[in-house]
């Protein structure tokens, strides 16, 4: 498989990476809109969040957003050779499986990522940029899905 267009990925990520928390919050707000059943999976100190807003304002969840944005940043950095992140991403897959995330939920995360990029980039989010990000995200999920296969 050809790697996604590295320049399109890097240029578009530059704008997003200036405000990772802000853009990450857009991603997760969209995710909870599309798949509200994911909200109960986020618990810190046995505390259930009563609403997505409650969750998105929690310091622990903001830390989760930071981590997610760092993973995307690592994928952007290694866009030409994601295999260097293979073990790390499989481990992330195992962690997500352990807390009850279904592999199918990652397609909703992908939709939310594209939504966030579109909101951030506006007209600069061209069909070619969308295709490059879809390809990159697909490769990341494929690597993470090894964590579900029990490897």
Automatic annotation (TrEMBL):
- Give all residue intervals belonging to the Globin domain: 1-149
What SUPFAM superfamilies does UniProt report for this protein, alphabetically? Globin-like
Q: What is this protein called?
A: Neuroglobin
Assembly: Monomer. Homodimer and homotetramer; disulfide-linked. Mainly monomeric but also detected as part of homodimers and homotetramers. Interacts with 14-3-3 proteins; regulates the phosphorylation of NGB. Could interact (ferrous form) with G-alpha(i) proteins (GTP-bound form).
Q: Which GO terms describe its cellular component?
A: cytosol; mitochondrial matrix
- The answer to whether UniProt assigns keyword Ligase to this entry is no
> Where is this protein primarily located?
cytoplasm
Which species does this protein come from? Phyllostomus discolor
Keyword tags: Cytoplasm, Heme, Iron, Metal-binding, Mitochondrion, Oxidoreductase, Oxygen transport, Transport
Name where it's found: Cytoplasm, Cytosol; Mitochondrion matrix
Reaction(s) catalysed by this chain's protein: Fe(III)-heme b-[protein] + nitric oxide + H2O = Fe(II)-heme b-[protein] + nitrite + 2 H(+)
Q: Which PROSITE patterns match?
A: GLOBIN (PS01033)
Q: Which molecular function terms from Gene Ontology are attached?
A: heme binding; metal ion binding; oxidoreductase activity; oxygen binding; oxygen carrier activity
Q: Pfam families, from UniProt?
A: Globin (PF00042)
